Amino acid sequence: MEVLIRDNAEIGCVLGAKIIARMVREKPDAVLGLATGRTPLRLYQELIRMHRDEGLDFSHVTTFNLDEYVGLPATHDQSYRYFMRENLFRHVNIDLKRTHVPDGTAVDLHAECRAYEKKIIDAGGIDLQLLGLGRNGHIGFNEPTGSLRSRTWVKILSEQTLKDNSAVFGSFEGMPKHALSMGIGTIIDARRILLLAFGPAKVRAVEHMVEGPLAAICPGSALQQHPRATVILDENSAAGLHYADHYRWVDSHKLPWQRYD
Ligand code: GLP
Q1: pTM of the model
Q2: With a cut of 50, which residues of the chain have pLDDT below it?
Q3: 44 lines ligand 1 (CB under 6 A)
Q4: Residues 11, 12, 15, 21: what is their CA dihedral angle, to the nearest 10 degrees?
């Protein structure tokens, strides 16, 4: 796992955007796995800026989002399809037919999950998967103790996750308690992973993900098995790491071609 600690979330998000932009420039038809939540918002703004000012071209890019709430149509302002449209898709030249978000309104949710897996395979697999990290260590909507080999499935959200997300949702009671989510096995199959985690609320999850045992109690720890996982942190989220000096040492001794910023 490559651990990059930056002074703050702003610098971390710009760095994350650079990594994604480099992927899109090197492979214009890249398949990107995308995430929602507060964490990647600034990264998406930077991608939009690169599209506007530097001609970053999304016209051949395909995307697959991690998850979606069960029961929310694309028109609902808290659906992840809506989030992606408002925060990225409508600001860049992406072909909406190439963008995928699980359909939380599907009559047969299991069939929708299977179909989503097939679409990812048919697209050639995911080149780069962007991730945030839940306060309890979840990735996508894979809550603690879910199988580390799971594929896209229907998940019951934990009380902690519902509370954390209720701030943006407006109310805890009105929130869907279920979601469709890529499984941890689906996520880990991506050829490259980029996880962002910022702020003091993520400190324990980050510590467990990076330095704790590989364990289903912290779904993010599955990234320890991935051959090409990059984790971008700020000083706050990295505060619990025992080997922070080692990560900084490695970061400062990279060869020129190993650097992103
Ligand atoms: C949500 C999403 C995750 C996200 C996480 C953290 O529940 N399903 O994909 O990474 O929680 O959210 P935030 O970035 O708002 O802290």
Answers
A1: 0.97
A2: none
A3: no
A4: -120
